[in-house]
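Entry, Tuesday afternoon. Goal for today is a structural model of the target with pyridoxal-5'-phosphate bound, before we commit to ordering more compound. Inputs were pasted exactly as handed over by J.K., no edits. I checked the ligand SMILES twice against the vendor sheet because last time a stereocentre got dropped in transcription.
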Amino acid sequence: MAVPFLDLKAQYETIRDEVLSAIHTTLDRTSYILGPDVTDFENRFAAYCGARFGIGVNSGTSALQLALLAMGVGPGDEVILPPNTFIATAEAVSMTGARPVLVDIDPATFHLDLGRVEKAITPKTKAIIPVHLYGLPVDMPPLMELARAHGLKVIEDACQAHGAELGGRKTGSLGDAACFSFYPSKNLGAFGEGGLVVTSDEKVAAAVRALRDHGQTAKSDHRMIGYNARMEGIQGAVLGVKLNRLDGWNESRRQIAVLYDRLLSGTAVHSPMEPEGRRHVYHLYVVRLKNRDKMIKCLADRGIGTAIHYPVPIHLQEAYRFLGYRPGDFPEAEAAAGEILSLPMFPEMTEAMVNETAEGLREGLR
Ligand SMILES: *Cc1c(COP(=O)(O)O)cnc(C)c1O
């Protein structure tokens, strides 16, 4: 049995009629950009997260960039983030003119190490971007306390964590603002590009709203130089339909994770952890093991798809050489990059597929 890493078609088939009808309504209204479907989705998604405002944009990357700009981050500023994230987290900082400052991770959670964050704060530091990597929320309360003590803003990179919870509160309500991506493979995916900023700060919301639309605060009233980063009407319609299913899909992911956990326990393949009080939504099910590259080949020979998120930490990417970091600067992130493996994970995955993947891993270990 072949097991794909991801199967978007399987999900499409379960929502086809409903989503096509929603798209037709949008097209009949010719509300191609922003419009009622986007507004409705923005409001419902913000409420879902427990935040006051939602501003739809054209990608998660734009969401991060505009949230930083809205908080006044710019040239001469520093923003702290982990080295083991999708490069967009760092790019968003760079696009504001600020400097990404990387801080090594806690290998247990793959999240920013709080003790190291404190040591990296300088007079230039303006903000921290904790990444809820793989769908596990960062332990936000101590981070917020540290940020408050130093007058720093905190922007959650929640691009992998739609619906994840900490102490009963959803990602999107834990920092000063949060950024989501609706890239098709994410837990909540558009039919194309999409992203959203949620915040309960009225000023930040107003600034992001203006920045996404050429700096307009009212028709032809441009108070700042902005961007074209608006969400498309069709994406709002698709996301509105899919939001109703998000909790169910996340629950399926969690059940698949429980099964993986059980099948892999006692082996040399280490399952992800879910600390007390946190609800992981398993955007990715990432295990850690020695001889990872041999395992990938062994699984591929059996028809099992895998991926690595991410094989090269940001400080070792050519594009970020100018920051002046060197191999060895972030030993935990670098060690993790060599041993992590993302297993097949999508809500429609069958129990037989999980069994097959676990069997493939056991064979690989032998
Ligand atoms: C997907 C992702 C982004 C970027 O989102 P896009 O919609 O692809 O621009 C940023 N950060 C993380 C952690 C992501 O996974």
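The chain has twelve helices and 16 strands.
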